[in-house]
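Title: Request for sanity check on VWFA domain-containing protein prediction

Description:
We are preparing a figure and want to confirm that the structure record we downloaded matches what your pipeline produces today. Could someone re-run it with the sequence below and paste the raw structure tokens into this thread? We only need the token string, no images.
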Amino acid sequence: MRFHTYKKFSPESADAVDLQALLDKLADFLLQSGFAGGGPANPWGFEDEEPGGDRSLDALKQAILDALIQSGQFTPEMLEALRGDGDDISEDKLAKLLDDIVQRLMAEGFLKAEQPPQAPAGHQSVFGPGGLAKAAAQDVQFDLTSKGIDFLGYKALRGILGGIGKSNFGSHDTPYLATGIEADAGSKPYEFGDVLNLDVNETLKAAMLRTGSLDVPMDLDYSDLMVRQSEYRSSCATVLMLDCSHSMILYGEDRFTPAKKVALALTHLIATQFPGDSIKTILFHDSAEEIPIGALAKAQVGPYHTNTAEGLKLARRILMAQKKDMRQIIMITDGKPSALTMPDGRIYKNSMGLDAYVLQETLQEVAACRKSGIPVNTFMLARDRALVEFVKMVSAITRGRAYFTNTMSLGQFILMDFLKRKTSRVS
């Protein structure tokens, strides 16, 4: 990928910045998870936890500055020359460069501001420490647009497939044949409802064999029509269950952000290569809820526990409403089931060991998925003995697959499992 190194600052420097390379470097910052903090916009409301990622324009500009230096687009020497002696003129130049880059990101449709900056009043300093511009940048929040989310999904997909040496991917292959645009097999007589992908040579041959004549114009009959066959492409409905209990970001490792990247990559893959497929995303914690893919970038970890049964119940309900050839659940988790929704709506919780009651109810939901013909493919980010046994039971009941992976190989396992899956139905 091409980068630019600036030897001398000019007001047009922001126009020469490679926005796609910059967004690629900003992916971790834009998708950072953190703990779910309090506030009216957060339905989980754990006020005693650290707030999640800073979504202010001030934090965005600092992340852009770091990304420019790390990518080589903006060298430390250039930064030092740009800042000069730290006077007001140097601060103004730096602020203008970062403002212009942010404006380009918004103009290109990758980001949006939730409220416009307020114009300064009076004679108060605009730039510099404590200036109104800095205060406004701290107050104004930014968010990813659908274009920005789709771009991050594309980059995540390219990165994952590139890591396993795969550059091309297609639809789900099946042992069946159907009429279509791609001719992958022999021709057959036309039947009502077939795509009229006419095999001219075979049609003319059939007409000549029937009439025994080469006269022009030829006498064509309905029975002479021959259409080319192509491989039957199945449609698949997928629900991606993401564990967002607190263990997904504890112990010095963020496991939730890589899971979000995989979800974006899988969504982009389905949208571009499998237009007949569908994908839905569920977060499960103390309870479970479906979220639109556009909200995935801002999703954070929390609350505490892992209500796997509620997640499976919601996933099964969503999948049964989908009229697809195949249905599947992809579950990403790192913890044992530790919560359960009671009939009266209360949440039963037990984090101490593998609770027998929680396990029993969870396996009942797993059995319901099996009865509905829905395999559960589990991607476990931990290797605790009890978890291993639980995952084995889930896979055995639903005839799904179990993968014990880490954040580095998670995406490769999930995408390859999705691409290789055939149309064999689960009885």
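Thanks, this matches our download. The CA atoms of residues 239 and 318 lie 8 Å apart.
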